[in-house]
Every structure is written in C-alpha cells, then in structure tokens.
C-alpha cells in the first residue's frame, strides 16, 4: 500500500467523531496488535491496479481494493461501527474517493476471542 494512501486513509477515518468514539486511535494495517485492542478497525490492501491510458501509466491514479474489518465485543457494536465507517467513506477524502462494494460483505464471530467482525470491501481511487 502506498505510504501516502495508508496515511491519508487512516487520517480520513480518524477525522470522524463517531468512529473515534468507537475506536479512538485503534486503526491498524493487517492485524489488531493485541487482543485487548477492541473495538478496532483493520485495513488490508487486497489489490492495487495502476490506471493506464493509451500512453501507458500517465494518469498517476491507482485503484486500491481494500478490505476493512470492524472488530467489536458485541454484534451491535460491530454493526454500528461499520455504519459509521460506511457513512464516513461516502464522503470524499482529500486525496482519494471510495466506492463501497457491498454493505456489509460479511459478518463473523470468533468463538476463541469472543470478537465480532463486520467486513466492508472498498475500491479507493
């Protein structure tokens, strides 16, 4: 993931008071670092495609496919966090726009950790 996109993506989410009320600064790439760091958001780059024209890569644009996981202790909190994230990502960021490819994509419960997850699939330009 581009260092700039990574930084801007996290900053865009942290600029929303509803998201911060849920997770504070617990927005992580790839994994939640500690079991006690819940609720949290975890984002993963699934794919990145350069936007080409007939002259090659001249647009400077990259389309990132991002998986965003909303982790919480209760199903209701996971759902409410995912709604706050969806609402925020419907607002264009300074350096990228987002298209949500289905809401929600997946709900899951981890019995070993007793955590709930709501997953969103995103396309960010």
Flag low-confidence runs: none
End-to-end Cα distance, whole Å, is 12 Å
Helix/strand order: HHEEEHEEE
- Beta-strand portion reads 25-35%
Q: Choose one word for the global shape.
A: elongated
Q: Averaged pLDDT, please?
A: 85
Beta strand count: 6
How much helical structure, as a percent, in the residues?
A: 25-40%
**Biggest sheet details:** 6 strands, mixed
Structural class, from secondary structure content? alpha+beta
Radius of gyration: 15 Å
Number of helix segments?
3
Helices and strands, with pairings:
Blueprint: H1 3-14, H2 17-23, E1 27-29, E2 40-50, E3 62-72, H3 75-89, E4 98-100, E5 106-110, E6 115-124
Outline the structure in words.
The chain has 125 residues and is an alpha+beta fold. The protein has three helices and six strands, in the order ααβββαβββ. It has helices at 3-14, 17-23, 75-89; strands at 27-29, 40-50, 62-72, 98-100, 106-110, 115-124. Strands 1, 2, 3, 4, 5 and 6 form a six-stranded mixed sheet that branches. A hairpin with a 4-residue loop joins strand 5 (106-110) and strand 6. It starts with a helix and ends with a strand.
Offer a few descriptive terms.
six-stranded mixed beta sheet, 3 helices, alpha+beta, elongated, 125 residues, 6 strands, 34% strand
Sum this structure up briefly:
With 125 residues, this protein is α+β, with helices and mostly antiparallel strands. The protein has 3 helices and 6 strands; from the N terminus they run H-H-E-E-E-H-E-E-E. The protein is elongated.
